[in-house]
Amino acid sequence: LFRSVGPVAAFGADQPLWGNTTYGMSSAQVAKLYPKDSTVTLLGRVYKITFKYQDDKLVAVTLSNEIKETSSNRAVKADDVFHALQRVLTSKYGTRLSQSQPVYMPIDDIMNGPLFLEGSTTWSVTGLTIVLKYDIMLMTITYNMALAQEANKL
Fold it and tell me: Residue 134's closest CA among 68, 72, 77, 79?
């Protein structure tokens, strides 16, 4: 499901992003691998795959999952999924670059404890930035090379 990212001399067209994609692929190349409305299952949840292009060159891939549980059980499941994804991504990409303090909303015992509202963690490997983010009801993982490409212009 995840592919290793090894060191490269420069951030070029062969730099892996996510899955079988590489930075700079055209939309036609990506469409051959991932038809429109493609999804992937991670930890038992279905994530929609979105590709971001700049001048018809792939610069980012986002996996997103809308958490659809009821409020009484969403907190535990979203929190569990977030931390499980953190562990998986850390095992693949190593030490986290940054991590926000998770935000919870206290809810009484009838609602099954606190509600997980948001959290994010970032990894950076050879110009590739990976951001895991949860915001109210949306879990996303974004693989992005755009910042590294901008840094190369300096």
Answer: 79
Contact 87, 100 (CB under 8 A): no
E strands, the chain, are: 39-42, 45-54, 57-66, 98-99, 103-105, 115-125, 128-135, 138-144
The rounded distance, in Å, linking the Cα atoms of 20 and 118 is 29
Structure tokens at 140: 């996303």
Which pTM was predicted? 0.77
Residue-wise pLDDT tens digits, 15-70: 888 999 999 999 999 999 999 899 999 988 899 999 999 999 999 999 999 866 55
Task: Count the Cβ atoms, other than its own, within 10 Å of residue 108.
Answer: 8
